[in-house]
Write a structure and sequence with these properties.
alpha+beta; six-stranded antiparallel sheet; elongated
Amino acid sequence: MARHIYRCPMRWSDMDAFRHVNNVVFLRYLEEARVDFMFRLAPGEGSASFTGGSVIARHEIDYLRPLVHRHEPVTVETWVTKVGAASLTLAYEVKDPETVYVRASTVVVPYDLEKGRPRRITAEERSFLEEYYDDSAGAAAGAEEGAVAA
């Protein structure tokens, strides 16, 4: 199973009054990794895959350890745990080599902006997503912490 690796820069403003990265900021980290995964790595030169729009149907986040600001980026690993006809589920770990700060999942629905409604996942998108598919890694990791990963 392949995982998409995104090195997310941290900003001084990411910290809150408790001197660690604020819980809401983790949603931004996940968004940055998701956009990098779905748009930068979308298959094929000139491909329209994933470019028509998408909406987030659900987020689940388990905060495991506090993350404090530093100059080095934090790593966000992303992989696919489910591909349906008109939605997909991504799992994430926000981490350093020895520490996992957050485990999360997101249900993404491809969206046709012109028609104003959800659309089906194309064969090209499905093929791309299947390269990153693993439904066991997120579930096993979540079970270790007593969390729901997907």
